[in-house]
Design a protein that fits this description.
CATH superfamily of one domain: HUPs
CATH topology of one domain: Rossmann fold
Structural class: alpha/beta
CATH class of one domain: Alpha Beta
Number of strands: 14
Helix content: 40-55%
Distance between the termini: 31 Å
Shape: globular
Order of helices and strands: EEEHEHHEHEEHEEHEHEEEHHEHHHH
Largest sheet: 5 strands, parallel
Low-confidence stretches: none
CATH architecture of one domain: 3-Layer(aba) Sandwich
Strand order of the largest sheet: 5-4-3-10-11
Strand content: 15-25%
């Protein structure tokens, strides 16, 4: 699948510090320890609707990680999927009376356009669920050889108890898992399952739904094994960071990890599991079912500067839950206008300490608000008349773009 175009990113004259991230599985901020190549997997969209601010917050967050690793001297191998066949997509296509393939293509392109506008660095591998079906089949065969697959009617299930580490990603109790599993795509009450928490890896063909041939009969992949297979193929085991929204901790990341760890005989799926918080609007988490979505594309088409959208997102720490308001966006619009006017002067307060502070903040669990506080302080000092550094504006522009993705 085609990814989106990469923005031009300025190089910095300094190397950034080692990057630390909060690991959900350890509930602590820990150093990331990539080799020359840093390996990152971030779960992508199901393209049945446009990119809303909850999506944008997640992808901007992990874009900070991509940039911080690059500034620290690593090549970054970034992989992202597109779940271009799944129940929500099929249901939406039926509801609006279009072919599911057309809906998936249209919304995936809109997502690409949104990511380009927000200056999110593209993944090296951008893989759709449909094109990953051979990888899914191979992984199911491995799991079947390990004795962790069984059949219910025409569907194949993965036995979660086959992974001794099941539960380590989320740290949830079995009771907590059972409470939420049905709300997030699971079927805990289905007769014939060995364990209510077992998940579908291959959904047998249903009338009116797309299906592909396989050794198990016609059907399509389950949700979790799609990401498991793509990550395993392109990044291998024990890659550096598995990322996504906090609503993916369970069951998605727990299940994906379990499937790979059983297939690969105990090899860890990822070293670190990092999760972005949820964005609310009108008092509730943004979701299609609630109808409280703020779309990136709608703002762009209303001539809102995408950098104002990105700045609004960066004002919140990526792990926090917060609420989007229009007032925040308009404040960002005004802030950018003021910043651009100040940068046009060329000279300003000393920039080197600010560059160091920004890089240190982003490397410390992607603390964009702390980085922006250093930037705000520089603008305040410069606007107050401090102009001792004749090249300050160029340095500030460069670090804003390279580290924070804000092109001014």
């Amino acid at each position: 699948m085609r990814t989106w175009s990469a923005p031009q990113v300025p190089s910095l004259p300094v190397r950034g510090p080692q990057v630390s991230m909060h690991d959900t599985s350890r509930n602590a901020v820990v150093p990331t320890t990539p080799g020359d190549e840093a390996r990152l997997y971030v779960c992508g969209i199901t393209p049945y609707d446009a990119t809303h601010m909850g999506h944008a917050a997640t992808y901007v967050a992990f874009d900070l990680l991509n940039r911080a690793w690059s500034i620290a001297g690593h090549e970054v191998h970034y992989v992202q999927n597109v779940t271009d066949v799944d129940d929500p997509l099929l249901e939406r296509a039926t509801k609006v009376g279009v072919l599911w393939e057309e809906l998936a293509l249209r919304e995936t392109q809109l997502f690409r356009d949104d990511m380009e506008a927000l200056r999110v660095l593209p993944p090296r591998d951008y893989i759709g669920a449909v094109e990953s079906i051979p990888l899914v089949i191979d992984l199911i065969e491995k799991l079947r050889a390990a004795g962790s697959i069984y059949t219910v009617d025409t569907d194949l299930y993965f036995s979660v108890t086959a992974d001794p580490a099941f539960g380590d990603v989320s740290g949830w109790t079995r009771e907590e898992m059972l409470e939420i599993f049905g709300e997030r795509g699971g079927d805990p009450e289905r007769p014939g399952k060995k364990d209510p928490l077992d998940c579908v890896v291959w959904r047998g063909e249903r009338e009116g739904e797309p299906a592909w041939d396989s050794p198990f009969g016609p059907g399509r992949p389950g949700w979790h094994i799609e990401c498991a297979a793509i990550a395993l193929q392109h990044l291998g085991t024990t890659f550096d960071v598995q990322g996504g929204g906090s609503d993916l901790i369970f069951p998605h990341h727990e299940m994906s990890a379990g499937e790979v760890q059983v297939a690969e005989r105990g090899e860890a799926f990822a070293r670190t599991y990092a999760h972005a918080g949820m964005v609310a609007y009108d008092g509730e988490k943004m979701s299609k079912s609630k109808g409280n979505l703020v779309f990136v594309s709608a703002l762009r088409m209303s001539d809102v500067d995408p950098m104002a959208i990105r700045l609004t997102l960066l004002r919140h720490h990526y792990r926090s839950d917060w609420e989007w308001t229009d007032d925040q966006l308009w404040t960002s619009v005004d802030t950018l206008a003021s910043w651009r006017e100040t940068l046009a002067l060329g000279a300003g307060a000393p920039a080197a300490p600010v560059v160091d502070a920004v890089l240190a903040a982003v490397a410390d669990d992607l603390n964009a608000p702390a980085a922006l506080a250093a930037i705000d302080a520089w603008f305040a000092a410069t606007q107050a008349g401090e102009t001792s550094d004749p090249t300050a504006a160029g340095s500030i522009r460069a670090v804003l773009d390279a580290s924070l993705g804000l092109a001014l």
